[in-house]
Amino acid sequence: MRIIAGRYGGRRLAPVPRRGVRPTADPVREALFSILGSSVAGRPFVDLCAGTGAVGLEAFSRGAAPVVLVERSREAFSTIRKNLALLGLEPGGDVRAVRADVGAWLTGPGPSAIGHAAVIYLDPPWAEERRLARWLAELVASPLVGPDSLVIVEHRAGRAPAPPGSWAEAWARRYGDTGLLAMRPAADR
């Protein structure tokens, strides 16, 4: 795995932990950031179920700040810390790594410290798809989501979640067995 473009473009990342992590493939990340373009530059980016941190670190490389990486797994979180070190980034600077369950983090004080994020990327382990509806509901009530926020869910192709409440689909793409669904909150939020 590597950072594709931006300030750290071409830099290699630490190997994926042996179990429990399904990293977003380089071609999917490249397509994602081709769609997002410069919309992440200078704006907060939150990577939930961050795994190795590759998506959030790609956003940071392309100018997003601050970037928050939230990961529950001890092994994956260790990989995030290795990747921060490989890029020469200090934990707690413009890239913050938080070891926590997504649901607990969303309902705790963490989101209030960030405010509205430009992009919230949610890539749950496919074995935990059942928790996705609850996490999306918690996002609806979260201070992370503002009127121009984009929530992107990476999912198993053919198993896209329904947008919560009055949210609307912004776009959807499929890359092999991986799907991306982007949603926006209702205009009256």
Give a structural overview.
The protein is α/β, with parallel strands linked by helices. It has one domain: Vaccinia Virus protein VP39 (Rossmann fold, 3-Layer(aba) Sandwich). Helices cover 27% and strands 21% of the residues. It is built from six helices and seven strands; from the N terminus they run H-E-H-E-H-E-H-H-E-H-E-E-E. The protein has a seven-stranded mixed sheet, with helices on one face. Helix 6 links the parallel strand 4 and strand 5. It is globular.
CATH architecture: 3-Layer(aba) Sandwich
Task: Give the termini separation.
Answer: 38 Å
Biggest β-sheet description = 7 strands, mixed
CATH class division: Alpha Beta
- Envelope shape: globular
Q: Give the fraction of residues assigned to helices.
A: 25-40%
Average pLDDT rating:
91
Say how many strands there are. 7
Structure class? alpha/beta
How do the SSEs run, as a string of H and E? Answer: HEHEHEHHEHEEE
Radius of gyration over all CA atoms, rounded: 15 Å
The neighbouring-strand order within the major sheet is 3-2-1-4-5-7-6
Strand content: 15-25%
> What is the number of domains?
1
The number of distinct helices, counting runs of at least 4 residues, comes to 6
The poorly predicted ranges are: none
The CATH superfamily turns out to be Vaccinia Virus protein VP39
CATH fold category name: Rossmann fold
